[in-house]
Amino acid sequence: MSDEPRPKSHDSPGATLKAFQRRGEVIKPAELIEVRGGEKITLAARRIYNQLLSNAFGPEMAAEGQEYRIPFAELRGNHTSNDRVTEAILSLMQTVVRVRMSDGSTRNVHLLGPTDVEKFGPGIATMLTYELHPKLLPILRDSQIFARLEMQILHGFGTKYGMALYEMIAKRISLKHVFYNDFETEELRDYLGVPDGKLGPFAALRRKAIEPAVAEVNALAPFSCSVVVIENKGRKVTKLRLNWWMKTVEERKAQWQAQQEKQRDLFDPGLAELDLFESS
Q1: pLDDT tens for each residue of 203-242
Q2: Domain covering 159-246, topology
Q3: Does 1.10.10.10 match the CATH number of domain 1-156?
Q4: 3-state helix, strand, coil in the chain (%, to 5)
Q5: Which InterPro entries does the annotation name (predicted)?
Q6: At residue 259, does pLDDT exceed 50?
Q7: Contact 275, 150 (CB under 8 A)
């Protein structure tokens, strides 16, 4: 993947942890977006991990031994059982991903550190206490580029491929005069989280992963995108181009109304005027 210019607004020391995280938003370091080795992470686990990052976000996020607490009710969403949340937490604790550091080196790191589950009286667990893995802390401390993710949008995705593509574009949407990025086919496959040995032929990858991801991003995000083939070697597709562009205010208003009907319990009416309809 070619090097990308950094947005000036993200280019000061410690910029990621010093940023202001708005209500209903996740500020996610760029290094945690395009990772390899995360193909076993489910859609639910991806969404929950973003919630954990949002809950932990702040100047002390890179402090070793720092503990964070979040109610299970916030992680369950519309589900009444904690089983899905528990499975996601264990998966995040066990998953090792390959992260590209800002100096070009690669680090293998667990996504989540130790956790504790609290119960107040008999019955269902009520509170999760967690730490971020110590090897993750330098990444958080030194990150200079981040994506702003909308929690309401994250809740709308039905595939992990769509969520991964949304994060990839959100990382780049603030770049000035940059509207596309080229990827090796295998690279994009990894970043989307396609499992090893699955969707081998490009036709299957396009039909089962790329096209559904593009459709979801175009339906949910304040921007639109496309993925096109730009290089073949013989009959093998070797390089793809990801294009993106902002929707108009009118398009975003129509989109907001359509999604609000589907996810009314997740939508805060005040956020529409505050965030989604601002002109870029």
Answers
A1: 999 999 999 999 999 999 999 999 999 999 999 999 999 9
A2: Arc Repressor Mutant, subunit A (1.10.10)
A3: yes
A4: 45, 20, 35
A5: Initiator_Rep_WH1 (IPR000525), WH-like_DNA-bd_sf (IPR036388), WH_DNA-bd_sf (IPR036390)
A6: yes
A7: yes
